[in-house]
Prior knowledge:
With 314 residues, the chain is an alpha+beta fold. 68% of the residues lie in helices and 9% in strands. A four-stranded antiparallel β-sheet has the order 2-3-1-4. The longest helix has 36 residues, at 261-296. The chain is elongated. The chain starts with 6 loop residues before the first helix and ends in an 18-residue tail after the last helix.
Amino acid sequence: MHIVERRNWWFGITILAILPGIIYMIWSMATQGTPLPLSIDYTGGTVWDMRFEQPVEPGAVRQIFVDAGYDDTSAFTFEEGRAIEVKFKPVDAAAKEQLRQTVIDQVGPFEELAYRSLGPTIGGETGRAAVVAVAIASALILLYIAWAFRQVPHPFRFGTAAVIALIHDVFVVISFVCIMNWIAGWEFDSLTLTAILTIIGFSVTDTVVVFDRIRENLRRHRGEGLASVTNRSILETATRSIATQITALLVLTALLVLGGATLQQFVATLIVGFISGMYSSIFNATPILVAWDEKALLYHGPMPSAGPERVVAA
């Protein structure tokens, strides 16, 4: 099975996967002034903390706000399920009182622990911090992989390919959430950022497993070209990578089915991201190495022995 030789197919699939997100960002920027459907975590809103006499389902409380027209509401429990934090768009005093009475009628009496507003300035700072966090993580991953593979010719190519693969995963997640925004009104919230950072970690781990096998096979099969060694390494690690991801996906699927409405977006995003990470490690990161190598014509012959030597162009 010649995976790297069919890399144009995989790159085409990659473009199709991220294209909806790119189209959405262009459209959203032109019509709404923001590239993504951001939740109140980033645009500002209201946080209402309630403590009930008995544990309650956050989904039931959230549904009250959704039925009242606040579709972007999120709800989370704390204090062993007796307290709920609800985030929604700002409302006036009359609307708040109506919501309070509806919650009491449908869920039960509660004690108001806090009622505060999150301004757009704070939300904007959170959004910028999210972008900086992803950028810093990408830079550190690039440097670490380049250092870890310093005995391989052109180690920065390995780091760059890994970063390109994780950027692909981020854009796949963006495309998924944007599509779900059209379908179900999903928005980017703090849990989406958490999911993206988690996906980056899993994706890079999977990529490093494949890269490590490439490094080993370059030493074992010195007479083979990089494309042949890379294809061999993918086939040798594919079973392990797929088995690891399937194990995680089974757990996430159970959470998706049984976790309730408040976890649905977070878990679904993780599932899509993990599948994308498995795909990008095999069909993006390693083919990028081969494509780059063949275009640059800098790799000729077998890998040198460990040490300061490097293979150079003839």
